[in-house]
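Memo to structure team: turn this sequence into structure tokens by end of day. - J.P.
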Amino acid sequence: PFVSIVLPIRNEERHIEACITRLLAQDYPVDRMEIIVVDGGSDDDTRPVLARLQARHPDADIRLLDNPERTVPPALNIGIRAAKGDLIVRMDGHTVPDADYVSACVRASRHSGAASVGGVMEAVGDSPFGTAVAIVVQHRVGAGDAAYRVGGEAGFVDTVPFGAFRRPVFERVGLFDESMIRNQDYEMNVRIRNAGEKIYFDPAIRFTYTPRGSVRALARQYFEYGWWRVETLRRHPASLRWRQTLPPAFVATLVVLLLLVPWSVYAAALLALLLLAYAAVLIAVARRETHRGARLLDLVGAFATVHFAWGSGFLVSLLSRGRYPYRARPPKVPPYDPGSTATAR
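Reply from structure team:
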């Protein structure tokens, strides 16, 4: 089948060349692929890098489209509308796919008959703290039990990252929800499952990506993940999974106990006990992972940042009813209308 690879990007000069170079080195026939890069107004050297890649590979179909909205869901929709492929693969500028990524997606799609297939997301840090983050986001204590993070056997699942979609699924469920600044992949997968279609995980599909390399960037990312997860729940209440309730429940418990401390010595004692137990668990888990090249303090900090940021974002969105610090918008799911008028360069 002809495969379209859609890349929503903005300011990816550090990573985009590695991503596209690996896509062009796939074991899949280059004349059966197209790469559609949808740029949200990059103001670094992303576009010059892309121009050099286009000049260096004249036989490859690399197109550049503009995304005036500058956020990911409209970029994906622009790329999907312009795509010619039977299979549409959603990638990211921070990712580097394995050399057989496209062919593995094609095999999994044929074998499973699923509307969307995906595989293992392997994080590789590019700094000391980033190395710790890479371990944490692939650990059950850090990111839950999703197969695409912790691995597992091939089979049908709730969600996969960066899916490879059969084109007809967009005709049935619509495009990505443009009101979802984050969590748009998960929300799309919920709609696919609600339509009676299936999502398939295959560990043979593999790619690496570079996680956030600082506490501040990681905290912001996971706060947004938690905040936008609540927006997904407002649209699809039945999509909540038990693992997603733990961080907000823990953060809420600590806040309540902290507020009670001035009036209750028992609240102070319980708060101290919970924090000590939490710290002990994190240190014990982190010590078992230091052999993978990360420092103990970085690992503990990364675990705590993921938990508290995700839980806080979830609670803030819930309590503010989607008004702070972002503003929720009504769902905006455009119908699939192939043949975009966007101009490629």
